[in-house]
């Protein structure tokens, strides 16, 4: 029998008034892995995580974490999970290190507070009340609070949003270390490089529904294998995507990523490359780069939904 998932979301429906935030979502998270939930703004990622954390009750369907119901079994579950919310999570007047020590005491085998705070650069603001911490400091404290208890499952909502590159790398290393320590990590992110580097498994959601699941490699290999990325120096003329699509024929798909880049998916062979460069020539488009490559997670999302992942 396969091991039971650490987190199971089974036909979850969540509504805010008329808005359907999560629309019959199914996903399973294998224990001791890092699972990334990807999706554009408003896809329902935070709502799903908050339901797994026991902050919201499913309107339909079921959620189970470590075999427990996050609402009904909240008291039993709380010491076994770590939570990093997108914002907040600490009392406004509490000092940063006091808060971290408090959370550590709620768990049976916490990490040492000092070294964790030092690694996340929290020692320098350890005596600062939470409300006076900068946004970045609050975020690092939130991450430390999620991990300090050595939880069995850590839910981290956009852990590196807005972090500088060095702290981002430290965060990635920390998440990899806790996974090696046996922690199951469920994270949401908008950063493709984060998901590609960290995640064992990715669930892509859009409009509250699962649109694809797999390891980053499986997702990037599935379907069309190759891409040609055309980046230009001046914005494309209106209708450029349609015009290039017509020039390339039915075997290829053309998506406009932004005003300066187009992605061609399909056979990225010499003939297609020749057609792209002829099209540039005929339309007065000056390429800055024309790159052949395997599609990345962002391309996968675009192919599946026709829209980009980033805000
Ligand atoms: N408290 C709320 N009241 C009303 N609508 C809400 C509330 N929270 C979320 N929504 C709506 O539910 C939908 C899903 O939101 P959610 O925050 O779960 O998405 P998300 O994928 O986490 O987005 P983001 O990447 O921007 O954090 C969106 O349409 C959002 O506007």
UniProtKB/TrEMBL annotation:
Residues annotated as domain ABC transporter: 7-232
InterPro entries linked to this entry: AAA+_ATPase (IPR003593), ABC_transporter-like_ATP-bd (IPR003439), ABC_transporter-like_CS (IPR017871), ABC_transporter_ATP-binding (IPR050763), P-loop_NTPase (IPR027417)
Topology of this chain in the membrane: Peripheral membrane protein
GO molecular function, one term: ATP binding
Keywords assigned by UniProt, alphabetized: Antibiotic resistance, ATP-binding, Nucleotide-binding, Transport
Record bears the keyword Cytoplasm: no
Keyword flag Translocase: no
CDD domains in the cross-refs: ABC_DR_subfamily_A
Compartments it resides in: Cell membrane
Name under which the protein is recorded: ABC transporter ATP-binding protein
The organism of origin for this protein: Nocardioides nanhaiensis
């Amino acid at each position: 029998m396969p091991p039971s998932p650490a987190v199971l979301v089974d036909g979850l429906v969540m509504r805010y008034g008329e808005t359907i935030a999560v629309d019959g979502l199914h996903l399973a998270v294998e224990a001791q892995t890092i699972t990334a939930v990807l999706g554009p703004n408003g896809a329902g990622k935070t709502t799903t995580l908050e339901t797994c954390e026991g902050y919201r009750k499913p309107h339909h369907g079921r959620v189970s974490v470590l075999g427990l119901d996050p609402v009904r079994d909240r008291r039993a579950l709380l010491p076994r999970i770590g939570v990093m919310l997108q914002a907040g999570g600490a009392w406004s007047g509490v000092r940063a290190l006091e808060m971290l020590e408090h959370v550590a005491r709620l768990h049976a085998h916490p990490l040492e507070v000092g070294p964790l705070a030092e690694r996340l650069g929290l020692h320098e603001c350890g005596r600062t009340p939470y409300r006076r911490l900068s946004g970045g400091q609050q975020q690092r404290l939130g991450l430390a609070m999620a991990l300090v208890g050595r939880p069995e499952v850590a839910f981290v909502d956009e852990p590196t949003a807005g972090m500088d590159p060095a702290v981002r790398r430290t965060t990635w290393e920390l998440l990899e270390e806790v996974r090696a320590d046996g922690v199951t990590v469920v994270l949401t992110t908008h950063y493709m490089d984060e998901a590609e580097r960290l995640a064992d498994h990715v669930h892509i959601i859009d409009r509250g529904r699962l649109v694809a699941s797999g390891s980053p490699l499986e997702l990037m290999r599935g379907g069309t294998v190759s891409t040609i990325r055309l980046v230009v120096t001046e914005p494309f003329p209106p209708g450029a995507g349609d015009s290039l699509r017509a020039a390339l024929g039915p075997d290829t798909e053309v998506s406009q990523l932004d005003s300066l880049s187009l992605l061609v998916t399909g056979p990225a062979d010499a003939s297609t490359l020749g057609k792209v460069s002829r099209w540039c020539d005929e339309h007065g488009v000056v390429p800055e780069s024309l790159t052949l490559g395997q599609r990345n997670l962002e391309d996968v999302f675009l192919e599946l939904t026709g829209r980009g992942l980033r805000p």
